[in-house]
Amino acid sequence: PIHEGYPLAREMLQKALALDPDHAPAHARLGWIAEVYDNDLATAARHMERALALEPGNLDIISNAANLLVSLGRLDAATALQQYVTAQDPVNPAAHGNLGWFQRLAGHWEKTIASNRTLLQLSPDTIGAHYEIGVALLSLGEAQAALEHMRQEPSEPFRLAGLAMAHHALGRTVE
Question: 10 Å Cβ neighbour count for 90?
Fold first, then answer.
């Protein structure tokens, strides 16, 4: 369960840092736990800054830092970092997925679609990619195209939510 797993993970990471205080991935993971589980953005930022100082070229840490920037409302900075990650590792599906998500949050619909299409080329069964494309298409007023993507979404919760939005946009209230 989450209420047991996160505290256990934090404990193990703290033990790792007791053995090696300069282990950047442990700092990054503690930052992620502080951000996602504790909603403690100040602690998350301290850990992420330390991780980046120790390993400034670590793409996983850079991507974690980009996620933190989203939580801080700094979408442009997050997007720039994630673009760097995708440029350095262009076949990383998760990097393209994060980039597409950040772009959607910023309202960059065409870029959202492009990033998620790249993601689907790299990993065709990725959960959420068709949903992200569908949301962007709805925002562009292309409800029928959005409906087609929502139908392809492998995740039932995303698919059902997306289908409801697309049908609503098409005026199909019964569906």
Answer: 11
- How crowded is residue 95: how many other Cβ atoms within 10 Å of its Cβ? 27
Report which of 136, 158, 155, 157 is spatially closest to residue 145, judged by C-alpha positions: 136
**Which residues, in sequence order, are CB contacts of 78 under 8 Å at separation 6+?**
66, 67, 69, 70, 102
Which string of DSSP letters, residue by residue, matches 9-24? HHHHHHHHHHH-TT-H
As a whole number of angstroms, the distance between CA 164 and CA 167 comes to 5
* Sign of the CA dihedral with 85 first, then 86, 88, and 93 last: positive
Distance in angstroms (rounded) separating the CA atoms of residues 166 and 150: 8
Q: Give me the sign of the Cα torsion angle 168, 159, 107, 32.
A: positive
Contacts of residue 173, defined as CB under 8 A and 6 or more positions apart, other chains included, come to 167
Secondary structure (DSSP) of 69-85: HHHTT-HHHHHHHHHHH
Distance from C-alpha of 37 to C-alpha of 23, rounded to nearest angstrom: 21
Which pLDDT tens digit goes with each residue over 76-127? 999 999 999 999 999 999 999 999 999 999 999 999 999 999 999 999 999 9
In whole angstroms, what is the distance from residue 25 CA to residue 167 CA?
44
Does residue 138 contact residue 150 with C-beta atoms inside 8 Å?
no
| Closest by Cα among 33, 96, 6, 37 to 48 | 33
